[in-house]
Design a protein that fits this description.
Oligomer: single chain
Order of helices and strands: HHH
Number of helices: 3
Helix content: 55-70%
Length: 64
């Protein structure tokens, strides 16, 4: 009976897809957060971070 349970459990796991996280946390020194983001909501912070990273990596790829 345990073998059947094991096979069922293994079959159930194989059929599942692992979900990718929708977001990740990044540590930022408190001083930087307070200087730039303290008065903003999370959506504004995320938008700024996305634009800043796009600009940073675009310049890096262009060799600027």
């Amino acid at each position: 009976m345990r073998f059947v349970q094991f096979l069922f459990f293994r079959y159930a796991l194989v059929g599942r897809e692992r979900k990718k996280p929708q977001s990740v946390s990044v540590k930022l020194p408190v001083e930087l957060y307070e200087r730039y983001f303290a008065q903003m909501d999370a959506g504004e912070v995320q938008e700024i971070m996305e634009k800043a990273l796009e600009g940073y990596f675009w310049k890096e790829a262009a060799g600027v």
